[in-house]
Amino acid sequence: MKTYSLLPTALAAALVLAPAVLPQAIVIDHNCTDLSLVPAYWIDQAKNLKLHYAHTSHGGQVVTGIEVLEGIDTYYSVAVGYCSLPAEAGALCIFDGQEDEDYIEPGDYWENEEGRQHTRDVIDHNPAIQYSMWAWCGQVSGSDESYIGGYLSVLDAFETEYPGKRFIYMTGHLDGSGSSGNLHLRNQQIRDYCVANGKILFDFADLERYDPAGADYLDLDADDGCYYWREGEERNWAVEWCAGHPGDDRCAGCGSDDCCAHSEPLNCNQKARAFWWLMARLAGWSGQTGPPTPSPVPSPTPLHARPGGGDYDGDGTSDPAVFRPSSGLWSVRSLTRFYFGGSSDLPVPSDFRGDGTAVPAVFRPATGLWSVRALTRFYLGSSDDWALPGAYGSGASAAVFRPATGLWSVRDLTRLFFGAASSLPVPADYDGDGTAEIAVFQPALSRWAIRGLTALYFGQSSDEPVPSDGDGDGTVDPAVFRPSTGFWAFRSVTGIYFGGAGDRPVPGGYGGPGAASPAIFRPATGLWSVRSLTRFFLGSSSDLPASR
Questions:
Q1: What pLDDT score was predicted for residue 9?
Q2: Domains of the chain, earliest start first
Q3: The whole model's pTM is what?
């Protein structure tokens, strides 16, 4: 067991000058891994930060995880410079290691004067760095209270020496000794100190003791590899959780079986998400996960209308848009804002001109009125009908589906019966011929019926159908979104987790021609999130999405 030597005179003197008013502690643990709760604004602000991060192989799990996350979603852009500070616009820039080494043990960062000078060199030579963080390897397991006290004192003295910068504290990785082991006692010493003294803590050990569902494995002798013991058998909670959640991004691999050092990819990926949560906090986010002034917002109910398109400028890319019934305001991101429609209307934009551009349109259920901006007005349908614009024949057509009877009415083309009261309409181009096929999804049976083509079983009774071209072959595939878990399933393609309860699924061609991107609109906050592409805010709780 190692005993820490006394601090040098300069650092000891600096401790006396610590401010009397302490900031509030920031503690990042297993409760800080759901990035859908972090406002996109604060992720954007975090990309302006500059961080110094020193570590050995265990600490490298964070770097591995953030690079995997960036590969999944480029919105979380990072630039990691080994022994240097990158300068990349639009990315969180990280100086990894010290100036002449990127495997940093205690003696290379804080434990002795030579290591402390290495840390000062990085800070002094890179004044843009605002935060410095160092990760333990296995040292905490064999440390006594005095040694950990020395670590805490040095980081505190660093903060006094550099008043415009903050140093981030960390706990040591799990070692299988449970809540009664020395590791847990020393980690708790670090936690207590940080909370009492307003420090910033990245709780490495806490992130390793819980799975994403919140199950706690600490007293099952959990270790840094996610192994634990139950009924005399060694098991691995990360492997088990991922086996039960195939396709979940949190289980994404990182290139090889051992790429997440000493552990499983899920462990690296959870730490990456906690790391971005930390960066958002450091950028100024309060950590509040709801709207600043909460108000009751009902869970979204199915809209009896589906947009027939969302490419408002004809460039081949879907444009996020919302319609505000209370005022008739349309907002098309980065393009335009205008007023059209009223409080009882539903948005039904589609390519009514046949030129590849979505035209704003509304359906008024009370009267069956369709109004297509700057083109035409006509009546089709009634208050109980679904409004379903689309290319049922040559060009765009207006159509309605009446669940009570299964009646489909396609303007100027046809009237027929297909489906029943429990059916949800899902017209789309399922055979790639350029026209939409009449189709229904029957939730109780998980049955899709596509007129003139096929019937198949796919999904569950609680799923919301979101037919989309999941593989980019020009043919729409049956697909579902499961609000309770955020699960998306594309038939014959893949399954992923993205979004959750309260979100409206709005898949579309946001990345241009090719496969449709899973996307969600969150009415409670106005968040739009397009998987692997972008996150931004557009609209509010009363708005309806007007894109697909």
A1: 39
A2: 24-283 (3.40.50), 321-545 (2.130.10.10)
A3: 0.59
